[in-house]
Input
Amino acid sequence: MKAETQVISLELAMKLRDLGVNRRSLFCWEEYEHKKSGERIWDLRSGRDFPGYAGGLQEGARHLDARSYIDYHEENCKAYTSSELGEMLPANKTYTHKDGNKWCCSLGMNFPECPAEFETNEAEARGKLLVHCIVNGIITVEEINNRP
Output
């Protein structure tokens, strides 16, 4: 299974970053310059993909694990997984199921301002629902960022 099918898209990652969501993630979208063309490219990376990672990175006297390395480089755009997004969504209110070829994520009938999201990728459906929850005041960015 490709990692791209397990995380949110670059566009959604940028939207969550712009809203102020800043939770730890195992993956990130990293921007770099293509050596031959000079074109700026975004690539999905894991903390383990970064140079020098071998079960942890040494940076000066600090030991950084994969997630810490992603957090340390703020220019990266975090690519949250469906599990990571599940921890951010309102507790005990989110319903996620697969409906044919699409994943459905909703808050149920009590929240008409947040319509159900249908996507082929579970993380994308959860991520879009999280955006709706933030924009409609159902959960705040502070609540999301300060959850254990």
Q: What stands out?
A: Residues 21 and 142 are 8 Å apart (CA to CA). The radius of gyration is 16 Å. Residues 52-67 have pLDDT under 50 and may be disordered.
